[in-house]
Amino acid sequence: MLEPPVDRVRISQAGKDQLIKLKRTTKIDQWNILCRWAFCLSLAETTPPSPVPIPTDSNLEMTWQVFGGETSDLLIIALRQRCERDGIEINKDTLSGQFRLHLHRGIGYLSANISLRSIQELVSLAG
Amino acid sequence: MIFRELVLQNFGPYRGRQVIDMAPVDAAQPIILFGGMNGGGKTTLMDAIRLALYGHRAPCSTRGNLPYKEFLNQAVNRQAQDESTAVELSLQLTLNNAAQPTEFRICRSWMKDAKSSRDQLEILVNGEPDPALEKGWDQRIEDLLPLGIANLFLFDGEQVKELAEQDELPPAVIGAMRSLLGLELPDRLSADLDVLASRKRKKLSSSQELKQLEAIEQQLDDLEGQRRSAKKAIAATYTQLQIAKKTLSETQERFFAEGGKIAAEKSQLDRQLQQAKAEAEVQRQALRDLAAGSLPLALIQPLLREAQAQIQVEVRYQQFQAAKDLLQKRNQHLIDFVETLKLKKTAVEQIRDFLAREDDDLAHPHAEPWLHASVDHLHQLTQLLDHGLPAQQQLAQERLTALQALEETIETTERYLATAASPEIYEKLSQQVDQAQAEVTRLAVEHEKAQQDYNQIIHAIDKARKELVEYSQATLEYLNDEHILRAIATVQKKLKVFKQRLKLRKLNQLETLVTQCFLYLLHKSNLVHRVEINTEAFTLALFDRAGQPVPKHRLSAGEKQLLAIALLWGLARASGRQLPVAIDTPLGRLDSYHRNNLVEKYFPQASHQVLLLSTDTEIREAEVEQLRSSKAISREYLLRYDAKQHQTDVEPGYFW
User: Fold this and answer.
1) Which of A40, A71, A77 sits opposite B373 (nearest CB)?
2) Which of A14-23, B17-26, B73-82, B347-356 ranks highest by mean pLDDT?
3) Which residues pair with B429 in a beta bridge?
4) What angle do CA B629, B630, B636 make, to 5 degrees?
5) What is the DSSP string of chain A?
6) Which of A87, B405, B499, B522 is most solvent-facing, going by the fewest CB within 10 Å?
7) What is the tens place of the pLDDT at every residue in B342-388?
8) Cβ contact (<8 Å) for B306 and A85?
């Protein structure tokens, strides 16, 4: 059991709005699943995320276990590996920050993808 | 015809029963000569013959305008108050080419001042009484010797004198001539036809049934017309109905074909669509389920590969650390064992260095570990990368492909359903079927009504026909009568023509015969060559050899009388009838020359039986001798009148 970067995953209001839209298009009604996809999508991007402040101004939050599910350790490993690749010192704060940045960047990517109109397009991303 | 016997009983001057045999001895001796002084009963003899033949119709000389009863009373002999008076005439004639001649005996008898206004008539045929013939005698005698021509066969000198002196022939003579020549027949036929026609017409016009019949026939005609139009109406509505039915069946067919197809397809397509949509949703749900699993990790496979390698490194290091003491102890054992092998010192040193390098490598990793993952993580990751993710990716791809196919199906189906615009067409077809159905219903009602009308008319026709049958007899009579009426009109027309032609023919014949007789009697052929008879007035005109008319006043009185006799003779011959001729005082004013001619040429040839009634100044001794010598006389009678007794007796013999 690896130590998660955050204990509770908190989402910004903008992120929540975008997730609501994604829930509607993909008909996936669980936030955590969409967030997983968003996180992975951002990790897959070669450029590191811009260090922008991300407020936690929505009431949407979940525990890391809920967020990660069965793959939570692998997600931690992936985040660490990514930080290592990006040359970021790995400690609790940086991991937490990077996680939030990646998560929200991924949510942004997903909601900005105009061709993503249903679950197919989402799954197709993993093709 | 031959008069065989005349019986006079208390008739006029003839007292008692006196029988006169008048039959000629043979055909070459036709003359029966009666001698009698004036008032001696010659004319009474003629009257007796006429009376016997014609009864109340007889044109007797003394009758004038007397009623028949008065005449009969007058004819009774003055001395024979209580005895019956009678005339009997026996005559013999050959009927219709019969082998033996038939003898008729006509007996008329009456009492003076009898209550009956008529005489008693008895007819004996070949000696047998014939009551039936008695009733129809007046008609029968018209066949044998018509009253009209009797005057020309039973004539007296007075008539001849009149004929000779008058320019115009008297109507009685003209009538007799017409009758004799058969010209009366068409007239009588025509008159009879007129009577028949008027009777029929009366019957027709007075027939109530007939009027009804005509009404029924009119009604039938009307009904027949109605029937025809009703039939036409039926046919028309039937045709319309058939057309409407055809239209209905066509629209129904179209409705079932197209509408039904659409309906069937629609439900099927809808079902397919629903199914496809459901399947698509299943696929989507499966994709969502996939998405809920580890599939997002596929996005970061390169990163995870890197991490895997790193984990392997880190795990090895950890393992080395954990096995470090054990390895050092083993290395020491190994070095100890190698030293016991008595190897070269350098070889041992080399092994020792090798082991030291190995330990050093293991004790000092190339970099600080950052993942701090466990062997379990390595296994999990390896399992995921090598098996989990590819499988899931493949599964996702399959689901995506299936979903795409489904979506294409759905899109195609939906597009078809959209472009088919089925509800409108279905609605339209359904509406057309409804309309056609309504039209069929309407026309069926119309047709039914027309049929009913027709049946009613047929019923009416049947009824009228039945009525007509009831009047069928009347119809037949009516038609018969109508036919007769039409035929009468035609016959009348033809009769007219026939009459005209007959007249011409007969008169031509008569002209020839009269001319012949006249020239024969006259012996002065240079004066008159030809006699012509006017077809209307029956007047005689004379022409000489040059064809110039000879005025009648140029003829002497004797010549005129001869002309009259020639006319009578010619008429007798023209009639073609074998009838007796009775001549009363014929030679009134003739000179000896003409008298001689008559005696010599006329009397012996006038007929096969010639009753000659003469005074002593007419057939004188010379003439009677002449006739006797030429053997023309069969019998001679003298009518001897007793002035005291006022009665006449008939005796054989003549004055001389």
Assistant:
1) A77
2) A14-23
3) none
4) 70
5) -PPPS-SEEE--HHHHHHHHHHHHHH----HHHHHHHHHHHHHHSSSPPP-------SS-EEEHHHHHGGGHHHHHHHHHHHHHHTT---SHHHHHHHHHHHHHHHHHHHHH-TT--SHHHHHHTT-
6) A87
7) 777 788 888 888 888 877 776 666 667 888 888 888 999 999 999 99
8) yes
- Give the pLDDT confidence score for residue B365 in this predicted structure: 65
**Residues B637/B36, Cβ–Cβ less than 8 Å:** no
Q: What ipTM score was computed for the predicted complex, to two decimals?
A: 0.94
B237-253 per-position pLDDT tens digit: 888 888 988 988 888 88
> Cβ of B292 and A26 within 8 Å?
no
> Could you read off the pLDDT of B189-222 as tens digits, one per residue?
888 888 888 887 777 665 666 677 778 778 888 8
Rounded CA-CA distance B240/B442 in Å is 10
The helix/strand/coil state of B349 is: helix
Token pair of B297, please?
């990790």
Closest residue by Cα to residue A125 from A116, B435, A92: A116
> Is pLDDT above 60 for B421?
no
C-alpha B222/C-alpha B557 separation (Å) is 78
H or E element that contains B234: helix B208-254
Q: Which residues of A touch B303 (CB under 8 A)?
A: 43-44, 78, 81-82, 85
- Considering only CB atoms, which chain B residues are within 8 Å of A73? 373, 377, 380
> CA of A69 to nearest chain B CA: how many angstroms apart?
9
